[in-house]
Amino acid sequence: MALKKFAQTRWEIETQRVTLYPYRIFTALSIGFGIVFAGFIVFFCLTLYPGRPEHAVSSMISLLIGLGVIVALVWAVSRTTVVFDNDTRMMRKKLFGVLSIRSEKFEDLQNIGIVRNTTGGYNFRAFLKRNKYGKGIVVSASYSKDDDPNAIALNHEAFTVIDGFLAAGFNHGDNQGEAITDFKYYTANPPYYTIKRNMGGVVVGLILIAVAVNELINHSLTHDSDTFHKVLVIGGFLFMGVAFIFGTLNKVVFDNNAKTVSSINVLGINNQTFNFSDFINFQITRRTTNMIYSGTDVKMYFEIPGSNKQKVLAIKSFSNTKKIDRFLQESRYIMDSGKLVIVD
Asked: Which of 9, 73, 190, 303 is the most buried (most CB within 10 A)?
């Protein structure tokens, strides 16, 4: 419990300022790191110089001083703050709580939202109007449960005040929508609107299939392998190639007459259709692979009539998050039958 408390977000609320401490996990890391490596240094020095305590102590002191510097730096990172100052109408991120490493004007901030990762955890981040669905600026620790008491308190106490700061300078003119005259992400054939697909997956799939065929004929990679491993390699390339092609050729179609959105598989297997009336909202999910950003998915959430459950339909992936805003505007425009749409 004590370790969890160290990892929680802390905040300070003043009349015209809110200070957030989102990196307090580094306090626990610095303590754990210091204890483990201090013990290792003592053990290493005593075993390296048996019977020569003066050499052991001398080496031990030098290594412990170096460890102390590293631990101090890690601990200092835990003091990094994100400050929302209503007097200057600026948000500043301060490394070690002292060095200002990033500044943004309040009028450039869109909102504070949740970013969920593929493992199910999430944190809160401040997003900019120029890139609403980008990486964002971390303003909280990471959480694993939606009902985490620290996350709920942070949202109700600190973020409520920050939202008030941002709302005070909100300009409705900044949020004006525009009529859609040309679709960038849909192929329009009224009443059907099909999301454009990136055919690069077909190219990758054909290359993988070509590798499988070449391996079947020439055995370039598996000439010294037994039959089982040859089948495994050829089958693997073939399977991945077919998966890439079918994944690319799957399509999502909006039908304005029937008021439905459908996910259509090339083989006609596991097709799905949802009514506009059951649509709840879009969700933007950032994907990471081994802690490295690998793309952002746009998903639609639908209610299942007659139940309390929801279904999710992934409709498009982006590597450039600045394009998502336009895509959502086109999607809402289609679902609203061509009415002017304002993207929040």
From this structure: 9
